Amino acid sequence: MESVRIDKWLWAARFFKTRSLASDACDIGRIEANGHRAKASRDIKAGDTLRITNEAGIFTVEVLLPAEVRGPATVAQTYYHETDESRFERARVAEERKTMLAMGGVAEGRPTKQDRRQLTKLRGRIHRF
Questions:
Q1: DSSP string covering 3-45, please?
Q2: Is the pLDDT of residue 56 over 90?
Q3: Angle at Cα 66 formed by Cα 53 and Cα 23, nearest 5°?
Q4: Burial status of residue 44 (CB atoms within 10 A of its CB: 0-12, 13-18, 19 or more)
Q5: Is domain 3-123 given the CATH code 2.160.10.10 in the classification?
Q6: CA–CA separation, 91 and 29 (whole Å)
Q7: Per residue in 81-112, pLDDT tens?
């Protein structure tokens, strides 16, 4: 197999829980392939660079194996290689979140309707993830 649809690969590599979520991410521009916005039907091959934005953060990965079969997480991790810059940036953002929580930057209890709207606007979310 030389190439595979990007939405199938994102699902198989376990970046998204369902293929429809991967397809939606492509539609709203959260997936870039080789510096260009990717459609769900775009074919990717080994050596392509992807920039993936999901609820876990922003990943910059190089495709090692184009696969369309979803398997265990240990196998899925062999499909790609995450860049060192991407790892460091995600760790930095996680540390900032922990610091903000420790300093009381987040209100206690459930957010109000206004708070939820502001969070949604801040995150730029328009779909289910």
A1: EEEHHHHHHHTTSSSSHHHHHHHHHTT-EEETTEE--TT-EEE
A2: no
A3: 40
A4: buried
A5: no
A6: 23
A7: 999 999 998 898 888 888 887 776 666 678 88
